[in-house]
Each structure stands twice: as structure tokens, then as C-alpha cells.
Amino acid sequence: MTNKSRFYQMIAPYIERTPLAAFFLGISSGFPYALIGATLSTRLAQVGIDKKSVTTFALVFLAYNLKFLWAWMVEGIRLPILSRLGQRVSWMLFAGLIMIAAVLNLAFVDPAANLIATAQAAVLLGIAGATFDIIIDAYRIEILEPHQLGVGAGMSQYGWRIGSTGAGALALVLSARVGWEMAYVACALFALPAMSTALIIGEPSRHHNLDKKKRSWKDVGDSIIGPFLEFFRRKGAALVLLFIVLHKVGDTLANLTLRLLFNDLGYTNDEIAIYDIGVGFWALLLGVFVGGILYARLGMKRSVLISLVLMAISNLSFAGLAAAGHSNLGMAAAIGFENFSSGIGGVTVVAYFSALCNLSFTAAQYALISAAASIFGRIATGTTAGGLIESMGYMNFYLMTTVIAFPGVILFWAMMRAGLIDESIGSAGTESSKK
Fold first, then answer.
1. Residue 10: what pLDDT?
2. CATH number for the domain including 281?
3. Residue 221 contacts residue 208 (beta carbons within 8 Å)
4. Residue 434: its pLDDT value, please?
5. How many whole angstroms separate alpha carbon 303 and alpha carbon 99?
6. How many CB atoms lie within 10 A of CB 311?
7. Domain count for the chain
8. What's the alpha-carbon Rg for the chain, to the nearest Å?
């Protein structure tokens, strides 16, 4: 076999129709995270808002952690007129329009003049982004075949990073030239890729339609709690959920405070755009590619375990940057390692989480899984991170995040040994599309 043939075999799974669709879905999934995360932190810090208030805004992300509470609506509520396009397509269009409106709303508030109004606009954007995520995740899982979940996760991560990086960089560059308002307006266009993809691909082939007959209130109640009952009936479900909650605590704490570190170290917006966003983007692309190779060659369990270890120790690079001070090379190295590790995990861990879903409850179950994955880290960031940084310093803070990342690693290893990983897989990881 020639080198050209080997190269084609490596990339062929990534250029199939549905993995490419997952890429465009990821673009629209990633951009809200940037606007209410790092970008908003920079905007607030630059108008003189104190660290405790800035990190409190991380609580906006709790909308993503609570999205399982209304994910059932995406499964069961048929939208007037739009529902003719299909349940998933109609909700993709509806959620995308709400997303655009929420971005425009945040664009025209002034944090310096009215912090409360800014917080309200950020919360609305968080709810809109979480709802958009519910339908994007369900659509991605249902258009992919079981053997494509790893590749699809990788392509989704590529798209997510482009959406997050593109929106973050665009906002920084435009804010310095035409103001934050127009920067946010321009970023609202990032909602279009997912909406367009749904129109082009149509209803997912693996989507299980709910009964369209008139339903009683008991049926509605069952549709709300049914997804959770089905999940918790599985052997070892409590341990699986505990792993989901624990595995990303350290990573979330570290990532949601990075812009504070960069601001205090004196980095300019252009330096952040080049070294944080730019280098991080290419490092993540490499990590996703390596993650795909690891997933294919080592299987789901071993590749997930390796990615968990790498993600845990990547926080040490931020402690090193905090100790070194303002260094463009140091920032590039720290961000590069963190994003490379996250890229690998974005393939392996997301593929595992996707496979956990039952195709009858894809939206609700993946909403629960993805929400639980970062809830502790986000609550801790919003309530204690700013105070911890002020009391113990950046270096000790990032050392702490490294330590608290390892219980999740140990738990996954123990689950592997007990055989719970294989037993936790749902129909999304086994059932092919109907022919």
C-alpha cells in the first residue's frame, strides 16, 4: 500500500457526509461559549469590574448544567408550522433564531453603566445557548452511525473550536476597532451553520419519533422522567454519573479563569488572540487528529483513560505560566499542551458520552450527561474561584485544579476493571440507522 493510499484511508472517515455535518454543527455549538465565557470576562475586566464579580458571571454557564430540565420539550413539543420540516429540523431553526436574538440583546448592554442588565442578558444568552446545544447534540448523535461516533465527535470538536475560536478572536479584534456592540452583532452569524446543516441533511435517520397521538398528562410526565429512569436502571449507572460529574472539575475550574490570569499578566487583546486563541486552535486540531487515531487503534476504554490523564496534568502548564510571568512563549506552550490534551479528550470522552444515550431519549439523556460533566467546576468557578485566586495566588490555584482532576481518572480506571464501561452503553452506541 502506498503512502498516498494510507493517508486517504486515514482521512476518508472524516470527509463522509454526516461527520462533515457534525463539523458544521460544532461551529454553532462553540460560539456561544466564547461570548459568555472568555470574551465576556475580557469585556468586564477591561471596564474595571473586580475579579469576584467577573468570576461570578461563570454562573451563567449553569444554564448548560440545568438544560436537562427542559430538554424533554425538544423531544416532545411540536412547533407550529416549522414541525412540517421534522422534529429535529424545526427545533434547530427555532433554537437558532432564539440564539441570534439573545446575542444581539447582550451586544447592546453596557457593563460599566448597568452590571445587572448585563447579567440578565448573559443569563438569557446562556439559556438560549444551552437550548441550542440540546438540539445540536441530539442531531449530531442521531445522524451518525455507531462506528462514526468517534469520528463525528472529532469533527464536532473541530467545528466547536473553530466556532469558539473564531467568535472569540473576531470579538477581540472588532472590539478594539468598532466596539463591543458591533463585535457581538458579527458573531451572531455563527448560528447559521447548524441551521443550514439541518435544512440540507434533513431529519436524522436514527431519530425515534414519539407517538403523535393525543397524549394524557401522565404520558407527558412519563416523557419527562422516562429518560432518567431508563438511564438509572442500567447496571452501575450511579458510578457512571459520578464519573461524568468528576472527570472535568479541574479542567473547568482552570479554563474559566484563564482570561483573568492573562489580564493580570498584562497580555494585550492582540497577544491573547494570537497566542491563546491562535496557538490553541492549531494545538486542538492536532489533538483531535491524534485522538481519532488513539480511539481507532486502542479502543474506547484505553483511549479515554489516556485522555483523562493528559487533561488532568495539562493544568500544571498554567501553574508554570503563572510562575514565569508575562511570556508569549510560555503562553503558547501552556495553551498548546492544554488544547492538545482537550482535543484528544474531545474525541474519546465525547464519543463515550454519545454512546451512553438511548435513541428514544437522545436529547434528554445527552443533556443530562453534558450538563453533569461540568456542573461542579462551574459552580466552584462562579462562587469561589475569584476568592481562591486572590487568597492563594494563581500558581497554587492551578496546582490545586491538577490535584482535584485525578479522582475522575481513578474512578474510570476502576469502572474499566469492573466491566461497567461496556455495560453502560445505550442504543446510540449499538443501533444502526433503519434501511
1. 66
2. 1.20.1250.20
3. no
4. 58
5. 34
6. 25
7. 1
8. 21
> Which pLDDT score is estimated for 213?
46
| Any domain includes 2 | no
Q: Which residue has the higher pLDDT, 253 or 155?
A: 155
Whether residue 197 is predicted with pLDDT greater than 50 in this model: the reply is yes
Which amino acid is it at 319? Answer: A
Query: CA geometry: angle at 256 spanning 255 and 257, to 5°?
Result: 90
Q: Is 10 a domain residue?
A: no
Q: Amino acid letter at 230?
A: E
- Tell me what pLDDT residue 214 has: 45
Residue 211 lies in a domain: no
Q: How confident is the model at residue 378, as a pLDDT?
A: 65
Burial class (CB in 10 A: 0-12, 13-18, 19+), 116: exposed
Rounded Cα gap, residues 55 and 68, in angstroms: 24
Confirm whether 114 is domain-assigned.
yes
Query: In the predicted model, is pLDDT for residue 132 greater than 90?
Result: yes
- For CA atoms 324, 326, 330, 331, give the dihedral sign: positive
Asked if 60 and 93 count as a contact pair (C-beta separation under 8 A), the reply is no
Name the grid cell of 303: 483511549
Q: Domain range spanning residue 117?
A: 20-206+218-429
Three-state DSSP class for 226? helix
373: left (phi over 0), alpha (psi -120 to 50) or beta: alpha
Contact 21, 197 (CB under 8 A): yes
Return mean pLDDT, the chain: 83
| pTM of the predicted protein model | 0.80
